[in-house]
Specification:
Order of helices and strands: EHEEEEEEEEEEEEEEHEE
Shape: rod-shaped
Strand content: 35-45%
Low-confidence stretches: 1-25, 158-205, 207-221
Distance between the termini: 18 Å
Oligomer: single chain
Radius of gyration: 54 Å
Number of helices: 2
Structural class: mainly beta
Length: 343
């Protein structure tokens, strides 16, 4: 039987994993969590544009959220227990045991010993933390206060006495006295009040002889004025009209934690994962695999050369070659460079 060179096998020993982006078995995706840091859009608008004469409201508010995505570096692997399937010899230690011939070769083969055996094609789950981002957009709608005042004239008042009231000394009446028995009592140049109602009635006049002048502030009250020589009150009527829209208000919150979930479930790892959970049999284990162990000197004579990995008790010699049986089976010209499937 011809010998075979051991090359890289399909079932390789591996301690790393296929990148998640390349995994075909998709897992769950968590529901996006509520953003506890969402902006107070109304408060931000009021702080920026509101005051005693401006009202602010929020319009055109919207938000855009990314889908929850796994956070790199938070991977947690859960390996599923293997209960059957294919397995491999792992960890070549050397050759020993019975020496045998291989067809017409002048060399000798011995049984390979391995550290242990493991199940192949491990299935596993990958759990990761997720997060998402949210971008908020809004416009601050601003109204300004305007006043549309009206003038309300004071009602006429009488002097309350019904008789004569002088403006001179003693109050008996002097020049420029005017008697109006039923109403307004005014004085000229000598009066205490003029151009308006009698001082006896508590009214200030709007004329030249009074405490104010025509259309001036009346009696110290900014809302009590003279209008065209008549006292009265300014009544304010406030309303709000459009001032401005401040668009482009925005805030982006990143890394909003969504919790942990599985990105991959029941994934199939090509090869097998070295580890105690997948140990089939502890070793050392002598396999049924035979590997070239003794090199013949050939017809020119000389000495036999054992391979460095041959640890058998039988010497590599012509005597043992002549006594060795010719066996069939898995024969290799060198030790495995990876795990060796048990088939």
């Amino acid at each position: 039987m011809k010998s075979m060179k051991i090359v890289a096998m399909a079932a390789l020993v591996t301690t790393s994993f296929t990148p998640i982006s390349m995994m075909s078995a998709a897992g769950a995706v968590p529901i996006a969590a509520t953003d506890a840091g969402a902006p107070d859009e109304q408060g931000l608008c009021e702080a920026a544009y509101g005051d005693e004469t401006h009202q602010v409201t929020v319009i055109d508010a919207n938000s855009t959220a990314t889908a929850p995505s796994p956070i790199a570096g938070t991977e947690s692997y859960t390996y599923r227990a293997d209960v059957g399937g294919a397995w491999s010899y792992v960890g070549f230690l050397g050759t020993s045991g019975q020496l045998s011939r291989n067809g017409g070769s002048p060399n000798l083969w011995a049984l390979a010993t391995f550290d242990h055996t493991e199940w192949n094609d491990t299935r596993y789950d990958v759990q990761m933390d997720f997060s998402h981002d949210v971008t908020y957009n809004w416009t601050c709608h601003v109204l300004k206060q305007v006043d549309n005042p009206t003038f309300v004239p004071d009602p006429p008042q009488n002097n309350g006495g019904g008789g004569n009231q002088g403006c001179g000394a003693g109050g008996e009446g002097t020049q420029d006295e005017v008697t109006v028995g039923n109403g307004h009592h005014t004085c000229g140049d000598s009066g205490n009040s003029g151009g308006g109602n009698s001082a006896a009635n508590g009214d200030n006049g709007c004329g030249a002889g009074g405490e104010g002048t025509q259309d001036d502030v009346y009696a110290g009250n900014s809302d009590h004025v003279c209008r065209d020589g008549n006292p009265g009150t300014i009544v304010h009527h406030y309303s709000y009209v459009f001032d401005a829209d401040y668009a482009g208000q925005t805030q982006t919150n990143t890394g909003i934690a969504d919790g942990s979930d599985y990105t991959v479930t029941n994934a199939l790892q090509s090869g097998h994962v070295a580890g105690p959970d997948y140990l089939k049999d502890a070793g050392p284990i002598t396999s049924n695999v035979r590997i070239l162990s003794c090199i013949s000197p050939g017809s020119k004579g000389g000495t036999w050369k054992p391979k460095d990995y041959y640890h058998g008790t039988l010497a590599c010699s012509t005597v043992n070659f002549n006594a060795a049986p010719t066996l069939a089976g898995r024969m290799f010209d060198g030790p495995p460079t990876a795990s060796l499937p048990a088939y």
